[in-house]
């Protein structure tokens, strides 16, 4: 499937910003089952300095410096991306979760794709006993790891309510778990905390869902905005699988990957330092249009 992805981000400030240094993660790159044909970033006001590169996990990163006084920052990001259809996995053929847990702890690979980076606590995902116990009910002894992960994904979908405004980007998994409500970021963090609590690698993925739903299917939660889901490592032979706890579905042709990390802090679309006083407002619009 070919998609045209468009995201407009508008920061409005209560007073003039005299200086800003920002890190942007708004440009997708080629990944497994995904190819990027074209990308473009347009920023107003024009940055005084602009540098592009990749972070440790291979996410495309843009560093900008703004020196022109402004009370409004507009970032338009566009991309044309091809996402391949992913075959339906056979969860029962993946190793049992105990074997995966033992395998990751024995790895000596410290490269960016190594599962070892995604099994320990991170900045926004701590290991909480209550969430670990909640996840453990989905992983009985000798349970195939992907079958258990799918069971946990579906349980989160059934037990949690999707409610915009119930949480913020800084809400912890513990708080989301108590509230039993939130948005895709919260559901992904809860699932990651549960998996890691059992010693199973789980990564945080940011990206997009197709805007126009397929015929005869319900509208997905999280469209028209940035979305988040989870990648679960199922052993060295099976590799990684994407699971979307917000919609209780495997991540596939409807999902466009933007960035991957240990949690939201690794993939925040805009981060940095702004020299200004007063409040600010953020507005984001997203469209993911299939071309065929």
General shape: globular
Beta strand %: 35-45%
Distance between the termini: 6 Å
What are the secondary-structure elements, in order, as H or E?
EEEEEEHHHEHEHEEEEEHEE
- Low-confidence runs: none
What would the CATH topology of the largest domain be?
Answer: C8orf32 fold
Task: Supply the number of structural domains.
Answer: 2
Structural class: alpha+beta
Number of DSSP strand runs? 15
Largest β sheet strand count, sense and barrel closure: 5 strands, antiparallel
Q: Return the average pLDDT rounded to an integer.
A: 93
Give structural notes.
With 292 residues, the chain is of the alpha+beta class. The protein folds into 2 domains: 2-83 and 268-290, Sandwich (Immunoglobulin-like); 91-267, C8orf32 fold, CATH 3.10.620.30. The chain is 20% helix and 39% strand. It has helices spanning 97-106, 129-136, 145-159, 173-179, 184-197, 264-267; strands spanning 2-17, 19-27, 34-44, 49-54, 60-66, 70-83, 161-162, 181-182, 202-209, 227-233, 240-244, 249-250, 255-261, 270-275, 280-290. Strands 12-11-10-9-13 form a 5-stranded antiparallel sheet. Helix 4 crosses helix 5. The longest helix is centred in the middle third of the chain and has 15 residues, at 145-159. It is globular. The N and C termini lie close together (6 Å). 38% of the residues are buried. The mean pLDDT is 93.
């Amino acid at each position: 499937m070919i998609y045209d992805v468009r995201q407009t981000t508008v920061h409005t400030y209560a007073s003039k910003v005299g200086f800003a240094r920002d890190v942007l993660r708004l440009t997708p790159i080629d990944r497994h089952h995904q190819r990027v044909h074209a990308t473009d970033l347009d920023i107003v006001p024009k940055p005084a300095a602009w540098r592009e590169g990749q972070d440790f996990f291979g996410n495309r990163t843009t560093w900008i410096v703004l020196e022109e006084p402004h009370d409004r920052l507009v970032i338009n990001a566009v991309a044309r991306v091809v996402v391949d259809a992913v075959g339906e996995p056979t969860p029962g053929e993946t190793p049992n979760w105990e074997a995966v847990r033992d395998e990751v702890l024995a790895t000596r690979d410290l490269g960016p794709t190594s599962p070892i980076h995604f099994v320990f606590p991170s900045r926004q995902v701590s290991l909480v006993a209550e969430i670990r116990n909640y996840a453990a009910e989905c992983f009985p002894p000798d349970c195939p790891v992907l079958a258990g992960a799918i069971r946990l994904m579906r349980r989160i979908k059934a037990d949690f309510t999707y409610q915009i405004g119930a949480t913020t980007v800084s809400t912890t998994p513990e708080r989301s778990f108590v509230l039993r409500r939130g948005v895709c970021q919260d559901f992904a963090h809860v699932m990651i905390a549960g998996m890691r609590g059992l010693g199973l690698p789980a990564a945080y993925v940011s990206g997009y869902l197709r805007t126009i739903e397929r015929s005869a299917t319900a509208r997905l939660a999280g469209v028209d905005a940035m979305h988040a889901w989870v990648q679960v490592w199922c052993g060295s032979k099976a590799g990684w699988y994407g699971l979307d706890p917000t919609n209780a579905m495997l991540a596939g042709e409807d999902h466009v990957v933007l960035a991957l990390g240990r949690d939201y802090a690794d993939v925040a679309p805009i981060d940095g330092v702004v020299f200004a006083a007063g409040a600010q407002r953020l507005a984001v619009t997203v469209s993911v249009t299939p071309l065929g």
